[in-house]
Zinc metalloprotease
Amino acid sequence: MLITIIAFIIVFGLLVTVHEYGHMFFAKRAGIMCPEFAIGMGPKILSFRKDETLYTIRLLPVGGYVRMAGDGLEDAPVQPGMHIRIKLNDQDEITHVILDDQHKFQQIEALEVKKVDLEEDMYIEGIAAYDELRHRYTIAEKAFYVEHGSLIQIAPRDRQFTHKKPLQKFLTLFAGPLFNFILAFVLLLGLAYYQGTPTTTIDQVAEGMAAEQIGLKKGDTITEIGDKKVNRFRDVQSALKATDGQETEVKVTRNGKTITKTFKPEKYEVAVSKNKKHTEFKLGILPKKEHSLVDPIIYAGEETLRYGKYIFVAVVSMIGSIFTGDFSFDMLNGPVGIYKNVDTVVKTGIINLIGWTAALSVNLGIMNLLPIPALDGGRILFVLYEAIFRKPANKKAETVIIAAGAVFVMIIMILVTWNDIQRYFL
């Protein structure tokens, strides 16, 4: 159990860290201020600050986030009705908004906030205690919140997500899923370099299957299946699929001679989702693996695309099942379901766990691109709207839609988690 817990934390932490780092990587290159980068949710366990970003590890290993200034997802620390203290510079601009008592500032002013705008016009307006009159103070170019004894920079207008160009916004949002796809490629590339890549030469023949029945042997090299030439192992799979299970010929070279055999591929159905199956045809061999410099790169790319195709088909099938009435929460896995899968896979060895992590990373990337407002895909839709119509979507409408999407996602996560608990533990 301890190994499963450690593996779950590592796998989940890796996927979330890479995803959120993708967002932050492109955000910072677009000049967007990122106040916090968090792994996990809930109370902070560890934290450290580097430059303007606070890096935190939180108690619950079920997610993470990167806070971006002006992304519409964070609550402003200053709201109308609050009593705050401010420090001004010689131009009567606010340099510090003081929200606690853990400070050593002198010559500060008490203010009852009436109006505040920290996105567009950058000001705080309120009743000053020293004369009980209403004043409007502009935020200085470099200003800070003072909270819990720490200085947190207030993002200037030009460093906020909302004021960036559509392309910069798109890249920042798309980067999370993109980094998940890159992670999958890197993991599969590492496995390919470690294990080698499959060739067209037979290493093992499965007992009782077609290859054994027609007399294929270890060391035979497959050159042709049906009317399709075989130059690499991927060609074997595509050629078998092209037969559609019909009797066909296979040509192999053995000791420098070409041998032709007739066989019927064996049909297998692989569950892509609860109501969707993928048909495969097998010869019944395991390929010999070889180490090279270039082949692992091609192999890792092909496998990443293959994972993406299967997962995309599964997601489309799941969405379609909502309209056909065949939808079931068994099609989805939350943190509990992922933990159970980790428990199953980790028992088969580290190699399988790495391959499964790559598939899960692709899955996370695709799921985050769904056009649901709280997810990256939904927010990208608002950016595309801005790019097409040359103006941003209504800010209030966007905030309400994203909030509604977040509530929807949270409800789905709760239902999926409860379903996973019932399915695996009750």
